[in-house]
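Before relying on records like the one below, remember that each one covers exactly one chain. Contacts with other chains, cofactors or solvent are not represented anywhere in the record.
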Amino acid sequence: MTRTQARTDAYANELRAVARHLGRRRFLTVTGAAAALAFTVNLPSAGTAAAAELDARRITENPFTLGVASGDPLPGSALLWTRLAPRPYEAGGGLPADTRVTVRWELAHDERFTRGLRRGTTVAHPEFDRAVHVEVDGLAPGRDYFYRFLAGDWSSPVGRTRTAPAPGARATGLKLAAVSCQAYHDGYFTAYRHLADEDLDVVFHLGDYLYEYAVNATGGARAYTDRRLPDVFDRETLTLEDYRLRYALYKSDPDLMAAHAAHPFAVTWDDHETENNYAGDVPENDVPPEEFLIRRAAAYRAYWENQPLRRPQRPTGPDMKLYRRLRFGRLAQFDILDTRQYRSDQAYGDGWRTPGPESEDPARTLTGATQERWLLDGWRASRATWNVVPQQVVLSERRSVPTTAYKLSMDSWDGYPASRQRILAGAQAAGIENLMVLTGDVHVAYALDIKADFRDPASRTVGTEIVATSITSGRNGSERPSNHDDLTRANPHLRFYNGRRGYVTVALGEDSARADFRTVASVTTPGAPVVTAASFVTEAGRPGLTPA
C-alpha cells in the first residue's frame, strides 16, 4: 500500500464515523462534506497537484500500456484521453509515488503525422492516476483527425477521431455502434476487434464497462496466471485503488484498445462500474447509505479517470453529472441518460416480480426529476430528424410468460412504469416522430417496437428500441435462448431476440434507419468471425421495425 493510499484509507474511516454521527441528509449538506468526500478519493483540492515533476526521460518502460481514446465528439472539438501506466497491475501504474509527468500530444490530418495540425502539453497528475483529458478546440466539423501522446522517448498508439457535423448541417448519413457489458472473466473481447474495422462516426457504450467482482475467483474463460495480478483482484471492489486496477486490467485488452483507437466513444454507466443493481444511494446489500456513498465516490472517480469524458463530467465526491446531449447536425440528437444515480429503489426487493402498487407508484422515478425535465425540454427544442436516447435498461415492457401470471423486471423501466409513461408522453407532446432508444444491460439482442400502451398490442407504435447484446457477459450464449418462445409470445412488440455476443450498428439516414445485429459464435476462445444475425429498418415518420 502506498503512503497516499494509507492516508486516504485512514481519512475514509474517519469520514465514515462522522457520517454515521451526522446522519445521511445532514452529512451530504454540511459545509465541507463535498470537500471531505473529494479527499477520500484523493483529489487535488485546487485543481493542481502538490507533486514533484518526474522527468519523462527517466521512464524506462512503455507508459502507454492502456492505449488511447477519444470521446464525445463536438462540431469543432475533440476530447483525447490516455493514462500513463508502465506497470498497469501495480498501484500508481508503476511510476514513483507522488510524481507528475508532462505529456506531449499531437493532432494531425494523417496517421503518419506529415500534416501536423496542433500540438501541446498536459500534465499527468498522480491524484488522477496519471490520466489526461485533452480538449482540442477550433477544429473543422465533420472531419477525421489522428492523434498521439508522447512522454520522454515513448510514443502512444495512434488514434483516429471524428468531429461532429456543424450545427444545422444537413448530414445525409451517420453510422453508430452500441455496445455494453464486457465481463473480462467471461471471455475474449473479440467483438471489439471486429468493431475496430467498421466505418463508424461514434460508438455508444451503454454500461457495465467493467465488473466489480473478484477477478481471480471467478473461474472465468481467460487465464490470469501469466498476468501476475495482485491480491487486490481477489476481493470485491471497495476502494479507489481497487477500481483503478480493474480499469487497468480491462483497458489493457488489445481488442478494446483497438476499438478505442479507431472510433470516438460516448460512454454512460450502468451498475457494475460501482456495484450490482444499486439504486441511487441504496446499495445492493445492507450497507449504510452514507458508507456506500464513499464507495460510490471512489467508483465514480475511477470511471471519470479512465473514460474519454469532458470537464463537465468530472465528479464531485459521490456525484457526477453523466447525462448530456450530443448533436450531429440536423440529422440526429443524442440524449445520453443515467438511469442509475437518481433512481428510486427497486420495488419488491428487485428481481422479476409480479407488478403491483409498489412498482406502479406514480412517484417512482428511474431518471430523477431534474434529468427527466432536461430530457423533455431537450425534445421540445429539438429540430433533429432522429432523436436517439442511449441509456442502460430495457424501456419496453417484457412480460416473462404469455399468461396472466407474468412477472416483470423490477430493475428495468418495467419496475418504474409511471416514469416510462411520463417520458413517452413527453415525447408525444414535443412532437417527436422518430424516437429511437439504445439499450444494454441484458446480455442479449432485442429489436422492439415501443408502444403507446403495452397492454394493448394494437396501440400506436411511438418509437423503436434497439438492445445491444453483451461483448462477453454471459459467455458464449446461444442464438435461441431457453425463454425465447415465452418472451416472443408474451410480447408481440418484440421483433427479434438473439442470445449471442457482439454489438449492433445503426445507420441513420434522412429517410430511414437500419440496425444490423452483429454477433460472434464464441468468446471463450479468441478469434471467432463476426456475422450479421439480423437487420431491421424503420422509416422516418413511420415508427416500427421491419426486417431488412
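Confidence is low (pLDDT under 50) at residues 24-42, 44-49.
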